[in-house]
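User: quick one, sequence for these tokens?
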């Protein structure tokens, strides 16, 4: 029963909030040499401390499933940054007064805020930045912790579809 609840929540979260991801990488690079990773100690994700922990946990689980190991002497480092993007308001109610040419636009509904997250994979002993993913999706920081955790997991899963590049 718990499986069905979790599955339903994942479907609900991902269906209501599409996640867009763009990838960029060094085309001629050998990605097979990377087996271990770590995060920069001064990482500033742009999330709350608890959401940062949720995001890093989701990354650890997804990378572990792909065969990578967290290490104190990693093959590459991961840096994650994010920013909020205001979605333009498309709905407005116009009120005008004839003769004088006065009109006022009143926005209808609330402003949507999207979160843009950039994932950088960096080889400090070699090429530097070799892989990057940029994701954009809606993210509600006021949602219940379980919902935020599922949303962050969905983002990480979609981002890591592109790593390593095929």
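Assistant:
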């Amino acid at each position: 029963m718990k499986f069905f609840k979790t599955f339903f929540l994942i479907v609900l979260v991902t269906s209501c909030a599409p996640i867009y991801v763009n990838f960029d990488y060094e085309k001629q690079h050998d990605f097979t040499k990377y087996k271990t990773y770590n995060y920069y100690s001064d990482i500033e994700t742009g999330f709350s401390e608890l959401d940062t922990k949720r995001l890093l946990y989701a990354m650890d689980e997804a990378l572990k499933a792909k065969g990578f190991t967290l290490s104190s002497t990693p093959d590459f480092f991961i840096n994650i940054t994010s920013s909020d993007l205001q979605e333009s308001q498309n709905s407005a109610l116009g009120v005008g007064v004839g003769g004088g040419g006065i009109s006022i636009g009143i926005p209808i509904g609330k402003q949507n805020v999207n979160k843009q997250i950039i994932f950088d994979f960096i080889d400090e002993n070699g090429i530097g930045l070799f892989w990057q993913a940029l994701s954009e999706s809606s993210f509600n920081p006021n949602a219940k912790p379980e919902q935020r955790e599922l949303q962050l997991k969905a983002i990480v899963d979609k981002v890591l579809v592109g790593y390593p590049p095929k």
